[in-house]
Amino acid sequence: MTIIVKKFGGTSVSSVQKLKKIASNLVEEARNNNLLIVLSAMGNSTDKLEALSEKICKAPNPRDYDMLLSSGEQVSVSLLSIILNNMGIDSVSFTGWQAGIQTDSSHMSARITKINVKNIQSEFRKKNVVIVAGFQGIDSKNNITTLGRGGSDTTAVALAAALKAKECQIYTDVDGVYTTDPRVFDKARKLDILTYEEMLEMSGLGSKVLQLRSVEFASKYSVPLRVLHAHNAGTGTLIKKEENKMEGALISGIAFTKDEAEIMIKGVKDQPGVAGKILGPIGDAKIEVDMIVQNVGSDGLADFTFTVSRNTLKKALQVIEKNRKSMMYQSVISKSNIVKVSIVGVGMRSHAGIASKMFKCLAKNKVNIRMISTSEIKISVVIDQKNLEIAVKALHNEFKLDKK
Ligand code: ADP
Ligand code: ASP
Ligand code: MG
């Protein structure tokens, strides 16, 4: 029988009523296929669990924290199984470890290292629908781990790869992947098809409709991935390998992140080794750096600017202050109300002039660019947060993304 993996996100399973609706939609497909269902926790229950722990302390023991956060998914999978069994459709619910998901020990952002599908396959032989708790696994010492927020997407794709499923379907609260977040711009258009590469860039640059790691898995193991609405009919967006005939759209989408911060270290020596002296201690403190710009100033001094995620800004400033002697700088300025806006598209490879079109459009709309970075299929700019919506809308119009 064909194996199909379906994942339902938090909003889509936020009540027993919604779970019942999902169950009744599964009846037909469960007859002729082996269905593996991955669920997120109901509604915002993961946020609520987080808030409970925050009432006690800011930095809980990571093992305890994962034990707590993983409990949300156990509620939704057991309820769906109760509903299906009650309807006469045989099903079984599994936690991550029961489903054979092994991870490394990086609590709160664990990586899946191996999947033992023995238990799932044995349930498939009994013709049971298998329902797996997303977002969690077990490490080599039997500690429960979680895969980072949004991690149920990764559970689903990893299981689809391990089971060689025909397709991994991600059901959510929008009916596919759009040219930009439809909650920010109502002219955003649903895309029918996207390449793994484009989706990797979109997710990596802030479109949280799919967790980045899930797209990495899908691309590595060539799992066809489809994003669909959980409760409305439609064919959604298919994400797959690039084919010649897909070459068409110059720009497929606009992604943005609102959680960036900028640090400018002024008056560093303009000589070899300086970047390493600054970024070395930052890296040692496990702070991820995104964009980097060095301006040559005067008198052999330069300004070194980089961006970090906003929640690591304070820590980064502490590291810089602590290493003042070895970094040898004059002053530090930081700014947290900045955002990154990116245009993404495989068509960019074969067309020149996209960058200048983007910059002209922003200039016309009086949006000042603070930093720029490019790769083969994306151009990103850092701008002031107040200009985010203006920039997204202007670029969407400039590249005619509302038209097919
Ligand atoms: P789930 O709970 O189902 O995992 P998420 O909230 O993680 O759902 O992802 C769906 C949300 O992603 C949508 O509600 C939408 O606001 C947001 N989103 C951001 N960028 C895009 C995009 N380009 N296309 C579609 N949705 C997007
Ligand atoms: N429940 C987890 C979260 O809210 C995982 C997920 O939904 O994918 O992040
Ligand atoms: Mg999600």
Please write out the topology:
Layout: E1 2-8, H1 16-32, E2 33-39, H2 45-54, H3 62-69, H4 71-86, E3 91-94, E4 101-103, E5 112-115, H5 118-125, E6 129-133, E7 136-138, E8 144-146, H6 152-162, E9 167-172, E10 193-195, H7 196-204, H8 212-220, E11 225-229, E12 237-240, E13 253-269, H9 274-284, E14 289-296, E15 301-309, H10 313-322, H11 324-327, E16 331-344, H12 354-364, E17 371-375, E18 378-384, H13 388-398
Parallel strand pairs: 1-2, 1-9, 2-6, 3-6, 9-11, 10-12
Antiparallel strand pairs: 4-5, 7-8, 11-12, 13-15, 13-16, 14-15, 16-18, 17-18
Helix pairs in contact: 1-4, 6-8, 7-8, 12-13
Describe the structure.
The protein has 404 residues and is α/β, with parallel strands linked by helices. It has helices at residues 16-32, 45-54, 62-69, 71-86, 118-125, 152-162, 196-204, 212-220, 274-284, 313-322, 324-327, 354-364, 388-398, and strands at residues 2-8, 33-39, 91-94, 101-103, 112-115, 129-133, 136-138, 144-146, 167-172, 193-195, 225-229, 237-240, 253-269, 289-296, 301-309, 331-344, 371-375, 378-384. A hairpin with a 2-residue loop joins strand 17 (371-375) and strand 18 (378-384). The two termini are 37 Å apart. The structure holds adenosine-5'-diphosphate (ADP), aspartic acid and magnesium ion.
